Amino acid sequence: MDKFITSERPIEHPWLTSIAGASKEVAALLDRSDDEQRTAGYFHTLREILQQPATWLETGALMTPLAEELQSVIEGVRTLVLTGSGSSQYAAECIRLALQSSLKIPVQTLGGGALLTHEGREIGPARPGLLLSLGRSGDSPESVGAISVILASEPEIRHLVVTCNAEGRLTKTYADNPRVKVILLAEQTNDCSLVMTSSFTNMVLAAAFLGMLNAPDQYMKLVEGLSRKAEDLLRTHIDTLAALSRRKFARAIFLASGAGLGAARESALKMLEMTAGGVWATSESYLALRHGPMSAVHPDTLIVCFLSSDPLVRAYECDLIRELNDKQLGMAKLIFGESIPAGLAQSQDVVIECDGLGELGDENAPVLDVILGQLLAFFRCLKEGLKPDSPSAGGVISRVVQEFRLHGPEN
Q1: What is the pLDDT of residues 284-326, one digit of tens each?
Q2: N or C, which terminus of the chain has less Cβ within 10 Å?
Q3: Which residues pair with residue 161 across a beta bridge?
Q4: Helix axes of 87-103 and 366-383: crossing angle, nearest 10 degrees
């Protein structure tokens, strides 16, 4: 295994004070002592959400020197498979379209579990291939198991790993395997909270570099632009999202198109995890909502709309939103995008404008979309009387999926 890079350099946090100065909600939470914040169970999650703009810059700086080495990894590859489990799979979904567009090869996303159960049969037939595995801790049973299965059954598939944990099994297991290369992100991205937040977005941005190896300066410019937009969102809209999270909704549905659907799925998962299922949440594409799921949009449903900047895609999305308006479905909508059409939102809805989002492009927007989902879930978790750092009071889920038996062909 080649471990490309690691960083233990601490990231400075002037952003924490700065955001607290702009948000009454954050100021109130940080006004308590560290011990009180830990007892209340939000010490880690709050910081890990707010640190994202700073950590993105760190990830960009880690990735750009790797262009030449990563070029040798991707050279000659005819198919790319992105894999992970849970949030890591949704992170992969956020970058699939961008990588397919830039690399000009088929790119598919598969859950680690699918590789365990169906091995290489799930992977398209073109070879040689590259399996890009994402994992915050690298310690879930699927993480190592899926790579081991494909290593044994698919000799023409190379392996690239992006992980946040220097002590994880993904980092250590393949130390002597020349077919596996690992990129280890900065220590700060290895979230301590049960829920993934900064690890999610940093793995998305790290993996996205695979499609920009010939333009590292352009990649860094993109990361810097996204970091500025994320910082603006955090400074300007936290209190609005906190207030929305406290409204009386029992359901939430997150709508998106294309790459944004990965962010929608992750946002729904955050709401489920941080409320321990107290708020039922799901995700769907705008056009698919009509094919049955619209029946679940009840008067107690919050509808979160991640709006595309592409004129064609947006036309379909706005038609669907207007249909929801005409049918008077849902409790309220949160609409996020740039230059949101006048009259699209109703009186009970919340609109968050993000200037410059179109210039960044739909394929790069998911890391911004998901911040809204993280904040909604965080503040709803507190309203539910739960602890964001460990919202599963009964231990039903844990930070790392507990061990389970891995079966081989003989079983």
Answers
A1: 999 999 999 999 999 999 999 999 999 999 999 999 999 999 9
A2: C
A3: 133, 182
A4: 170
Predicted TM-score (pTM) of this structure:
0.93
